[in-house]
Amino acid sequence: MAWLVLIVAGVFEVIWAFAMKQSEGFSRLWPSVITLAAMLVSFGLLSWSMRVLPLGTAYTVWTGIGAVGAFVLGILVLGEAANPLRILAAVLIVGGLVLMKLSTPD
What we know:
80% of the residues lie in helices and 0% in strands. The chain has 4 helices and no strands. The chain has helices spanning 2-22, 29-49, 55-78, 84-102.
């Protein structure tokens, strides 16, 4: 269950990162509200998952989901560059996340 909660926390990290971009430096109300609400949910779920999972594993997976999710969303929604080196970097992050999961006892 802690892994599922951690994945959902990572998804909320992507949501708050995207909303923060849309807030234009917290100058737009609703994207700013979404950013803060998603942050609270994301941090709360991360905190809950850390009751069971090791700190290093939970934090690494959470930030990795956020990084790769924001990267993909940036490409698909915001039209950001998808060059081979950026894609390789994302693949390496995902590989690290898989290794982190495999090396952590349930």
